[in-house]
């Protein structure tokens, strides 16, 4: 690092405004005035977004994935052209990459975010937890009517997979012992597109029952449409629309398959997972094999596993508890730890099981029955 960059570290810190940080960065770039003016305009737009959220427009506050995602969504809502939005995201990503390399910021949320394309499905809002509880309720209610859409919808929710990945999944993509799903798609002239993601325990049991009841082989597709045939392109939209119609969600209330991708990323961001871990969830290219991939990303997988199990627990609880009755549970004691194990295979601690037996025995019974089938 040269002396000028050392000096820059003394001038800039995480409390520095984005505009000021851009001015300092300019001294280390060969930008024309026109290029700088464009960067400055984009930075000021994002600063305004932070101020509108009640935050100071600093480097620190611009690191959050959920805030960046809301800003990108806002561009779409304001009918900003796709290429313009891409340029704005690239400008902010350049700024954060510069200061991340200097160690002044820890993450670059702009690099992890994606911009909805010009010809993709309609924009979807990000769902809150109460909305997801309604989705879970809709899935269970539709099941009673003979409409089975739980597997693909829950895969959307817990993995953030895109439509094309959901459609291509086969039974062989599930690692039953580790509770993982592996998407390893070979794409011509590029590296393998690989994602290895954990699934929560009750959903794993639901998948197991789904495979057994349909008598599926390893080579069979994992997801099926309303009429019982393997999912094809665009049919996932029809499944999600079943939920929208059941919940009477219309207009801006409606959710699309891509909306679940926004939702899980935002939920994990709010739960404190790093942008790097969220970026891992959303997928990237890899030329390595699965075993090496698992060893390299073990910590990220464990972090995601814990949080999506927490999310599943809250959603499952909402299905069996009365609307007017609350069951306060200590989730810090939910998972088994050394010296506090109920069973080597059951993922919950003795303390959690005892607490749940008093507060919500229905849910405990469901957890136990699903696990030991």
Q: Can you put this structure into words, describing what you see?
A:
By secondary structure, this protein is mainly alpha-helical. It has three domains: 3-112, DNA polymerase, domain 1; 129-314, hpI Integrase, Chain A (Orthogonal Bundle); 330-371, no CATH class. The protein is 55% helix and 4% strand. The protein has 17 helices and four strands. It has helices spanning 3-11, 18-26, 33-52, 65-77, 82-101, 109-112, 129-144, 150-159, 163-168, 201-214, 235-246, 257-270, 275-282, 290-296, 298-320, 350-359, 361-371, and strands at 174-175, 180-185, 193-198, 284-285. A four-stranded antiparallel beta sheet has the order 1-2-3-4. Strand 2 and strand 3 form a beta hairpin. Helix 7 crosses helix 15. The longest helix has 23 residues, at 298-320. It is elongated and about 65 Å long.
Highlighted features:
373 residues; mainly alpha; DNA polymerase, domain 1; hpI Integrase, Chain A; 3 domains; four-stranded antiparallel beta sheet; elongated
Q: Summary?
A:
The chain is mainly α and 373 residues long.
Structural class, by secondary structure, is mainly alpha
CATH class group of the largest domain: Mainly Alpha
Oligomer: single chain
The CATH homologous superfamily of the largest domain is named Intergrase catalytic core
Shape estimate: elongated
- Calculate Rg over CA atoms: 23 Å
The strands making up the biggest β-sheet line up spatially as: 1-2-3-4
Beta-strand segment tally = 4
**Count of all domains:** 3
Q: Helix proportion of residues, in percent?
A: 55-70%
CATH architecture of the largest domain: Orthogonal Bundle
The helix/strand order is HHHHHHHHHEEEHHHHEHHHH
The largest sheet is:
4 strands, antiparallel
Runs in which pLDDT lies below 50 for 5 or more consecutive residues are 118-122, 187-191, 322-344
């Amino acid at each position: 690092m040269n002396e000028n960059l050392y000096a820059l570290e003394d001038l800039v810190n995480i409390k520095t405004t984005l505009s000021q940080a851009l001015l300092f960065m300019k001294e280390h770039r060969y930008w024309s005035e026109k290029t700088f003016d464009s960067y400055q305009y984009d930075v000021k737009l994002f600063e305004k977004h932070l101020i509108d959220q009640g935050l100071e427009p600093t480097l620190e506050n611009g690191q959050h994935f959920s805030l960046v995602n809301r800003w990108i969504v806002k561009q779409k809502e304001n009918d900003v052209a796709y290429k313009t939005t891409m340029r704005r995201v690239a400008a902010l990503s350049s700024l954060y990459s510069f200061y991340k390399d200097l160690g002044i910021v820890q993450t670059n949320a702009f690099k992890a975010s994606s911009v909805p394309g010009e010809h993709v499905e309609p924009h979807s809002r990000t769902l809150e937890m109460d909305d997801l509880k309604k989705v879970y309720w809709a899935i269970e209610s539709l099941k009673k009517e003979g409409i089975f859409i739980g597997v693909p919808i829950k895969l959307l929710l817990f993995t953030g997979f895109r439509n094309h990945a959901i459609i291509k999944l086969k039974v062989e993509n599930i690692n039953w012992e580790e509770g993982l799903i592996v998407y390893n798609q070979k794409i011509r002239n590029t590296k393998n597109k690989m994602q290895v993601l954990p699934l929560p325990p009750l959903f794993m049991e639901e998948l197991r029952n789904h495979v057994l009841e349909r008598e599926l082989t390893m080579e069979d597709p994992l997801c099926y449409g309303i009429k019982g045939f393997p999912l094809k392109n665009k049919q996932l939209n029809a499944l999600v629309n079943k939920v929208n119609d059941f919940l009477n969600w219309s207009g801006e209330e409606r959710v699309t398959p891509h909306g679940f991708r926004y939702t899980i990323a935002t939920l994990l961001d709010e739960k404190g997972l790093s942008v790097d871990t969220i970026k891992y969830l959303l997928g990237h290219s890899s030329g390595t094999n699965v075993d090496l991939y698992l060893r390299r990303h073990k910590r990220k997988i464990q972090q995601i596993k814990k949080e999506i199990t927490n999310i599943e627990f809250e959603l499952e609880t909402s299905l069996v508890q009365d609307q007017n009755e609350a069951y306060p549970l200590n989730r810090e004691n939910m998972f088994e730890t050394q010296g506090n194990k109920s069973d080597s295979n059951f993922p919950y601690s003795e303390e959690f099981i005892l607490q749940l037996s008093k507060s919500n025995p229905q849910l405990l019974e469901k957890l136990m029955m699903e696990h030991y089938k």
